[in-house]
Specification:
By secondary structure, the protein is α+β, with helices and mostly antiparallel strands. The chain has one domain: Peptidase S8 propeptide/proteinase inhibitor I9 (Alpha-Beta Plaits, 2-Layer Sandwich). It is built from five helices and four strands. Helix 2 packs across helix 5. About 22% of the residues have low confidence.
């Protein structure tokens, strides 16, 4: 009986594999989408643009800790997309943008971005 239990335990452990995340196209896309607040892309597609706060990933480029330079690099990635800088937010590792769906896709895939959330301040009248 003990031997049978050990064999079953061995099979379970062997089948579970190491606790290493699997990276493939599907999980990569899910990770990109997870940077975006739920429903944000749908809202941008419906309304054309959305106001967002983008949190910069300071660990993305360890050799570059200057927040303004990281923000500039992120804006360079957005070249050719629907976006407008609303506010650079000073020394905070964040930037306020108005973005379209095309810019959201770039933000979702950028190593410079931790997360993108909708701005709660709304549009100016």
């Amino acid at each position: 009986m003990k031997t049978k239990a050990l064999i079953i335990m061995f099979i379970i452990i062997a089948c579970s594999g190491p606790n290493v995340p699997v990276h493939n196209a599907e999980t990569g896309a899910a990770q990109q989408r997870s940077k975006l607040e739920p429903g944000l892309l749908a809202k941008a597609q419906k309304e054309g643009t959305v106001l967002v706060i983008v949190e910069i990933n300071l660990d993305a480029r360890p050799d570059e800790r200057d927040r303004d330079k990281l923000k500039d690099q992120l804006l360079t990635q957005l070249a050719g997309t629907t976006h407008k800088v609303i506010r650079r937010l000073g020394d905070l590792p964040s930037i306020g943008l108005e973005v379209g769906p095309d810019a959201l896709a770039i933000l979702a895939g950028s190593e410079l971005v931790l997360k993108v959330t909708e701005s709660r301040f709304g549009r100016a009248a």
